[in-house]
Design goal:
The complex is a heterodimer. By secondary structure, chain A is of the alpha/beta class. Chain A has a single domain, classed as Rossmann fold (3-Layer(aba) Sandwich). In chain A, 34% of the residues lie in helices and 28% in strands. Chain A has 8 helices and 10 strands. Chain A has helices at 48-55, 78-88, 104-113, 120-133, 149-161, 179-194, 206-209, 235-241; strands spanning 4-17, 20-33, 37-41, 63-68, 71-72, 89-92, 167-171, 198-203, 214-219, 222-228. Chain A has a 6-stranded mixed sheet, with helices on both faces. In chain A, strand 9 (214-219) and strand 10 form a beta hairpin. The radius of gyration of chain A is 18 Å and the shape is globular. Chain B folds into 2 domains: 2-51 and 272-404, no CATH class; 83-259, no CATH class. Chain B has 13 helices and 10 strands. Chain B has a 6-stranded mixed beta barrel with strand order 2-3-8-5-7-6. The chains are: A alpha/beta, B alpha+beta. Chain A binds chain B through residues 53, 56, 58-59, 78-79, 82-83, 85-87, 91, 93, 97, 99, 101-102, 106, 110-111, 113-116, 119, 159, 163, and chain B through 1-2, 5-6, 8-9, 12, 16, 312-313, 315-326, 399-400, 403.
């Protein structure tokens, strides 16, 4: 029996814009088990971003239940949310969001700086390990400007892994990359997922969904589809099928 | 532990923006350096005034005609004719707290020796003048009471006058010179004293019997000053009171009438000049403090820009678990580091400037420890004060908005 990492029940999020109330999420329920690779899909305006913010503990629902790793999100303060983000979630962004002029290893160490339980030796050790996991063991001291887009995203992935989160939350993580690099990154995600890491991937690209084990499709603030993908494509195989690039 | 990490983050941000940080610091550096240099000049001049005045005879008492209007811009006492020779004699007779006393009449004129001439001041005094002023003679002798009585045309001159009217190195004693066309015999040369704090050349004087100066040069009956010396420094204040009493009686002043003269001891003179220089110091420090304030505003400005510029970074830091308080501390530490580093550099620069002023401009300076401590403390406070607002702004950002900020 696998563990329930995310539990969402009748989740609603409303925004007040002047006198109008916008219902971004209209009562959503689903859960994510440990080790799943879920893509959340939807076009713009579907409530996808709102969902992502709530999943990432950056925003709180208006009503309903959201539990991550057994912790209820209800009525938590800004600081408590920050601690949960620090300990339970690994963020990956479309535009990498690495600190400029800062080496890969220091970028990866960043989340651990905000965790006073981690010593500086342990921090360095874990950062190196994370960078090795994403295949950048040789580029510890490169700054973002010395790395390609794909490599920068790998640094970001290493950064999301370094705090041993219960879930990695990726927001259009391949959106800025070409097809080849996208597939490389997706195959890295698949590898990490095989090692037991839970991944939630928010995207609007349908082909990304074929690499995941489950897809949740949002539309107008409601779940339209939620299906298991029985025929998971291997990103590595797809990558091999791509025509060779001339350099 | 956490604070140490934030400290590291802040240091890193400062190092990444070296030029900008240095330029920001410049305001603080200049502010602190000028506060320290200004205070050093102020303290130095105060000290040197004290030494000069003490060297002039610390138990000296000066009696001047006219009402006592203390302050730096005193009117010329010479226009008022309330001091007479009779006053001098009465004081000499009645005061038991005074050891030496002399009338003083003075005027300006041209000292001439053959083809050499030099503008100087002549002081008409009696022989006790040298004891009051604590000066000796390097050659010749002082005129005598008999020479005063007979209004002899003899003079004792200072080294500057010697240098200018006897340029060939002639022995001046025994020579004849003319002061305003009246011939005088030089009978002595004063010891060299150099310039005093007020920039006055104390060797540029001609001393003659007061009777001679009164009758032959100025053609006046009144005195410009009476200078006396109290029997001891401790007795000076009492002597001042006593002399005032004597003069009030002598001048037949009613109880409700103000003094038509002023009596001052050196101690009062010291405090008068000290308070003048203190005023000046306060003024200088005020100006310097304004530059420190501007430096502080510079920090606030740059921190404010920095927060705007790094909005996305702040969003990221928050997303990976940075709390509002962490962000606040990060920016606050950054501001304090800038201001304190600026403070250290400012202190060093200030000390350098002080040494320069002392060495090359020959101004007396004295660095007070309190000035370093104060400007340093002000720096730290400036950092906190001006860093707070931008840091607060950064910490209050919404992580979602900050992350999306372009």
């Amino acid at each position: 029996m696998s563990k329930e990492i995310i539990k969402i029940q009748d989740l609603k999020r409303e925004f007040t814009m002047g006198t109008e109330t916008v219902h971004a999420l209209k009562g959503i329920s689903f859960s994510i088990q440990e080790g799943e690779f879920v893509t959340i899909m939807g076009s713009s305006g579907s409530g996808k971003s709102t969902m992502l913010n709530i999943l990432g503990c950056l925003d709180q629902p208006t009503s309903g239940v959201y539990e991550i790793d057994g912790v209820s999100m209800k009525d938590l303060s800004r600081n408590e949310l920050a601690t949960i983000r620090n300990e339970k979630i690994g963020f990956i962004f479309q535009s990498y969001n690495l600190l400029a002029r800062t080496s890969a290893i220091e970028n990866v160490e960043l989340p651990l700086l905000y965790n006073s339980k981690v010593t500086s030796e342990e921090r360095r050790e874990r950062a190196i390990k994370a960078l090795e996991m994403v295949g950048l063991g040789e580029r510890l001291h490169h700054t973002p400007s010395q790395l390609s887009g794909g490599q920068q995203q790998r640094v970001a992935i290493a950064r999301s892994l370094v705090n041993n989160p219960v879930m990695i939350l990726a927001d259009e993580a391949t959106g800025n990359l070409d097809t080849r690099t996208s597939y490389e990154i997706m195959s890295l995600f698949q590898e990490l997922n095989k090692k037991g890491i839970t991944i939630t991937f928010v995207t609007h690209e349908p082909d990304i969904a074929t690499f995941s084990s489950r897809t949740v499709v949002l539309k107008d603030g409601e779940i339209m589809q939620d299906y298991q993908n029985h025929d998971v494509q291997s990103a590595a195989t797809e990558l091999a099928k791509l025509p060779k690039q001339d350099h | 532990m956490r604070l140490l990490n934030l400290f590291k983050i802040a240091t890193k941000a400062i190092i990444l923006n070296k030029t900008r940080t240095l330029l920001t610091m410049l305001g603080i550096i200049i502010g602190v350096a000028s506060v320290i240099a200004m205070l050093a000049i102020g303290e130095g001049s105060k000290e040197s005034i004290r030494t000069t005045i003490s060297a002039m005879g610390s138990n000296m008492i000066t009696i001047q005609p006219g009402a006592d209007s203390r302050g730096p811009a005193r009117g010329s006492g010479g226009d008022v004719q309330t001091l007479t020779l009779a006053n001098y004699e009465t004081i000499k007779e009645q005061s038991n707290l005074i050891s030496y006393i002399t009338p003083v009449v003075n005027g300006n004129g041209q000292v001439i020796n053959g083809s050499n001439n030099w503008p100087s001041s002549i002081y008409g005094v009696n022989p006790e003048y040298l004891d009051i002023k604590v000066v000796g003679l390097q050659s010749g002798s002082m005129f005598t009471d008999a020479e005063v009585k007979s209004a002899s045309k003899v003079v004792v001159i200072g080294q500057t006058v010697v240098d200018n009217v006897f340029p060939d190195g002639q022995e001046p004693v025994g020579q004849m010179i003319r002061f305003n066309n009246i011939p005088f015999k030089v009978i002595g040369v004063l010891e060299e004293k150099g310039e005093n704090t007020f920039g006055q050349d104390q060797d540029d004087v001609v001393i003659a019997p007061y009777t001679t100066v009164q009758k032959r040069i100025l053609a006046i009956d009144h005195l410009n000053q009476i200078v006396a010396s109290a029997i001891s420094e401790d007795d000076a204040p009492a002597a001042v009171t006593q002399v005032s009493e004597i003069l009030r009686t002598e001048h037949k002043l009613l109880d409700n009438e103000e003094d038509d003269f002023s009596v001052r001891s050196m101690e009062e003179l010291i405090s008068t000049f000290s308070s003048t220089s203190e005023m000046l110091t306060i003024l200088l420090v005020a100006v310097a403090s304004i530059s420190l304030l501007i430096g502080g505003i510079g920090i606030m400005n740059i921190m404010y820009v920095s927060v705007k510029e790094r909005t996305k970074e702040i969003g990221l830091r928050m997303a990976v678990g940075g709390k509002g308080s962490d962000i606040l501390m990060q920016f606050l530490i950054e501001a304090i580091l800038i201001s304190i580093t600026g403070g250290v550099l400012g202190v060093l620069l200030g000390l350098g400037v002080t040494v320069f002023i002392e060495k090359f401009l020959n101004w007396p300076t004295s660095v007070a420890l309190y000035s370093i401590v104060i400007s340093f403390a002000v720096c730290a406070v400036t950092g906190i004060f001006f860093g707070w607002y931008p840091a607060r702004k950064a910490s209050a950002l919404d992580p979602i908005t900050a992350l999306r900020y372009e």
